[in-house]
Amino acid sequence: MGEISDCCSAKVYNPGGDKWARCEACHEMSLVISGDWGGTRQKVAVLGSGASAAFAVAACKSIGAEVKVYSSVYPTENIQQTGAYFLHAIPPNIGHVEPVQVSINSIGEAAVYSEMQWGKVVPTSFPIEERTELWYSPMYLNRVWQSVPVFRETLSTEDIIGLTHQGYDWVFHSFPLVGRHESLVQFPIVVGKQANHLRDFILYNGTVQYDWVRATRQFGNLCFEYPHTYSIDDEYLFRDVIGDFSAPPLAELMGDVPASYEFFCGRDILPSTRPVTRQEYVRHNIVPIGRFATWDRKAFAHHAYTTVESHLQER
After folding, report:
1. Cβ contact 31:19 at 8 Å
2. Given CA atoms 154, 160, 164, 166 in this order, what sign does their dihedral have?
3. Nearest residue to 250 via CA among 207, 304, 314
4. ∠58-63-68 over CA atoms, to 5°?
5. How many angstroms separate the CA atoms of 223 and 88, rounded?
6. pLDDT tens per residue, range 12-67
7. Are the beta carbons of 53 and 304 closer than 8 angstroms?
8. What is the DSSP letter of 158?
9. Is 181 helix (H, G, I), strand (E, B) or coil?
């Protein structure tokens, strides 16, 4: 009996029923997603199209589950994020990618940073000494969405529960269902375009000299994040950033002043927020993934891969 697997936009024919087959279109090896080796395929719905959803889809592909995505925006619209947005890992099944070196440093004191950011002293990611890490561009996640059906829909909680009555074994959602929306805050980000060859960095501000709390250069975007108490409509932010370029120690680090800036709105979770427990799931097979769905500030996008993998292996 021949088997098929999605690869690029083509179908892979595997007459031997092996777990892997070679695509006749691109000649790449691909995982066969059904057949005698795996038994009945599990049906999975992934809700959302951000980084956590991409890792969830990648896990479904690896295990051989049938996956469909429901999202209010398409993945290519959701992957363009600003601020300190790097990936600590990539899905293991998207091919070879090159990491980038990111310099992580700070000026001032952690307590001042925390006071500016949250209005009180709490544990934060403020670095005590400079370090360099290898991270990945979120643009690589676009490879995950190939041959995955995406339905552009906005679903209510009732709609999501209804999916479990439509034959889905698991529903993984990357946006919050458990109500704690008072813990979700928005903050302004000012973004300017620079040359791609400049060094990527994250700089935390623990001084009262500047109003922004974190500056980031990633993939040609120079970003300044402000506390959530600031308004995104405040034109003062633009003048503030321009003035900061000429003052040490930023002049050498920042490079040339961008010709123009755009304003974006970021999201974060208050430090006092308690993560969702399994007893709070809407249903046992409706599982939160990612930072905002789990209300967990320590959750990274790649954690969704192991979460989905472990749940699918339960059956």
Report:
1. yes
2. negative
3. 207
4. 55
5. 19
6. 333 333 334 444 444 444 433 333 334 478 999 999 999 999 999 999 999 999 99
7. yes
8. H
9. helix
